[in-house]
Amino acid sequence: MSELFDRVDALLASRAPLPPPEERRRLRKAHGLTIDEIATALQVRRATVSGWEAGKTEPRPPERDAYARLLDGLSELYPAPADAGTQGEDTATPETLTTPATPVPKARPLSTGQEPEAVTTTTAENTTRSRPAAAPYTTRPSTTSRRPDARRAAQAGTPAGGAGPRFENGPLAVVDVDTEGQVLAYCTGGLVLDVPAKSLSALVDWTLREAKLGQPRLSGPGKDADPLLVLTEAALERYGLPVALTDEERLAGRIPEGHKVVKQLTRAEWKLTKRGFGPWARIYRPARGGERNCVQLCIPSWHALDLRHWGHAAQLPPADLARTLGVYASRVMTPRGSTAVTGLELMTALHPPTRASEPDATGKRHSEHNPGSLGKDPVDCAPCEAPDGHPLLTDLPRFHVRGPGEKLFEEAYDWARPMTDDECTLRYLVGIDVNMAFAAGANGLVVGLGAPEHVKAPVFDAKLPGSWLVDLSHVDLSRVKVGKDKWAELDASLLPSPFTPKGERPEGPAWYATPTVAYAAELGYEVRPLEAYVRYDNGRYLDDWYNRLRDAYLATMADLGVHADMDPADFLTAMDGYKERDPQLTIVVSAIKATVKGGLGKLRERPRGEGWRPGQPWRALARPTWRPDIRAAVISRTRINLHRKIVKHAAFTGQYPVAILSDCVVYAAGGTGPLDFLPYRDGRPLPGGFKLGVNPGLVKHEGTQSVLWGEEVRERFDAPELNLARYIKDGTVTDIDNGE
């Protein structure tokens, strides 16, 4: 009988009730658990738990019963608020549950054959009508204007609701004017709202009071994202703003303070940030209580959306632009400026500098340092980490050029070599590119959180982030360690040095970040630093940042038909022409990649005009996120990760790269694709080598050209070491690139 009961219990466990995915995430975060901790406890992969929380997969026995038990226990500790079913993934707070006094109706997607029906609600001041998403529209006379249907908008994962009543219309809206003169706000998910505002000041008021736009905070101690309004050219004309900036205004990055619209905002007691009214303007009033009063504007015709990162997004019809920016906002965050600015802001949003303390004796809470963050105050870098012109370097003679023994120079690869005779007998040059290489370099990286400490003659510690002065000129790549007690004999003349961006062998002591020095030891060579600037206060600050950007990238690539865990041939097929499947989502992929690189670049932002002179501080130095040491560590690890794969590949196959540019590597091959030279056995790649796939750190096909093309280009420009990786994608070479 007991055996029978066991089988019945097993049946019950196989259908153990589980809360919806959003509630699973809420409960985990409420208890301060990470996905890794749950995965370890249940003995499953991290990606498995992520799938459960995203609703993509459901747990199966025996893990399902254990997972249900965990969630039941957490639900007793953290009961859901009364209207938690409409909350986003963050724990509800009094602020996020605030509901505006006047609700705005939401347009429902229409079923096939259903007639549009307008819903009208009367307010104290105006009548706000929510237009149906399926109604045809035109912004200005154009043959290209069109509206995406509700199914297409939903596919991108940007529903209008789902973030609680306060932000139920999504994070942003594109404001346009139709041919009848009506101002419309195109929201995510296909929702379109009538806008009653007659002036920009009234538009800001309407946005904060009635539009229900915004996004919940990404971290408990953080702040909710302010609503974003994207103004089309027609909207700019309606609200008295120029459609384009003059050359003088473009260089200044703003319209004059005496502009009539700026004066209008001032009369209405609205303020602008120090950067003024430019392509990414912020309009606010000082916070009252715990509620922020701030709206951000994005003005595409003022070049707010950089062509290099957002492609033709500025030319999209309003509904399509709302969809594109909405996907980015839902998966990364509401844009706060350029992709670089947003990348940096994402770090802070995930690790706010302060948090509320426990109540004191009087029951009052105070602001305190948030552990794991960079804090609210900037810290000085080490002298070797300071870029030229930094105030720390004022004692150096004028025009002094610092060498590697004075300056930390961790940069991406730009290396090439002449082809060997054997390589010239092959027919093709094949380029492979590492997906999200710098994001992968940030994953799991321990970086300093506080100020550096100077140490003389330290013992190297691979777990201690910092900058080390050490001589690595003795490292010989002709004999390196490639595994435990396993050495490989290589042709060092065909390999770049892992210690310099140009691939040259170092000639003496130089400054390196921790990952570079650790790699020298990994190759089997002794390292003895002369001095170092180390950071004992450290942590994996970029992990959450990496995870969010990785998930955003993988989700968007999956929407484009490229999925994780594809076999190599299917992956290459899926990547062929993926950009044409949905051009708007292709823009999102480009923006996500730019967010990674730009955000890391901002960690060492240089002076941007403003009358700066060498030796004087510049604006970026006042940020806690001005951290050149973190940037250097990420670049160092990214370059080392690539070199490690190159060495593994060379030791196993005898093949060496011809050129490397950042995250792109070119090999000579007998065929036209990566599978013609990457060593796969039974569908499995070389352990520790290159692996085809969409995940960050894996590689894709970058481009193929003929060996004859490569030799002809180098001969034409009389440049035997011209970096062919720079041109492998399309083969177009107009002139020798100087690397800038």
Q: What value does the average pLDDT take?
A: 86
* Helical content band: 25-40%
Low-confidence stretches: 83-162
The major β-sheet equals: 9 strands, mixed
User: Which structural class best describes the helix and strand composition?
Assistant: alpha+beta
Count of beta strands: 24
What count of helical segments does DSSP give?
Answer: 21
Strand order in the largest sheet: 1-2-5-4-3-6-9-8-7
- Our estimate of the beta-strand percent is 15-25%
Report the C-alpha radius of gyration, rounded.
28 Å
| Quaternary organization | single chain
Distance between the termini: 78 Å
Instruction: Using the alpha-carbon principal axes, give the shape.
Output: globular
What does the model show?
With 740 residues, the protein is α+β, with helices and mostly antiparallel strands. It has a 9-stranded mixed β-sheet with strand order 1-2-5-4-3-6-9-8-7. Strand 3 (172-177) and strand 4 form a beta hairpin. Helix 3 (35-42) packs across helix 4 (46-54) and helix 16 runs parallel beside helix 20. The longest helix has 26 residues, at 628-653. The protein is globular, with a radius of gyration of 28 Å. The N and C termini lie far apart (78 Å).
Question: What characteristics describe this protein?
Answer:
five-stranded antiparallel beta sheet, nine-stranded mixed beta sheet, 21 helices, 740 residues, globular, alpha+beta, 30% helix, single chain
Q: What's this, in brief?
A:
This protein has 740 residues and is an alpha+beta fold.
Question: Layout of helices and strands, plus pairs?
Answer:
Elements: H1 2-14, H2 21-30, H3 35-42, H4 46-54, H5 63-77, E1 119-122, E2 127-131, H6 150-155, E3 172-177, E4 183-187, E5 192-194, H7 200-209, E6 228-231, H8 233-238, H9 247-252, H10 260-267, E7 271-272, E8 280-288, E9 291-298, H11 307-310, H12 318-331, H13 339-350, E10 354-356, E11 367-369, E12 414-416, H14 421-424, E13 428-434, H15 437-442, E14 447-448, E15 453-456, E16 466-471, E17 479-483, E18 486-489, E19 509-513, H16 514-522, E20 531-534, E21 538-539, H17 543-559, H18 568-575, H19 583-602, H20 628-653, E22 659-661, E23 664-669, E24 699-706, H21 707-716
Parallel strand pairs: 3-6, 6-9
Antiparallel strand pairs: 1-2, 2-5, 3-4, 4-5, 7-8, 8-9, 10-11, 12-22, 13-23, 13-24, 14-21, 15-20, 16-19, 16-20, 17-18, 22-23
Helix pairs in contact: 3-4, 12-19, 13-19, 16-20, 17-19
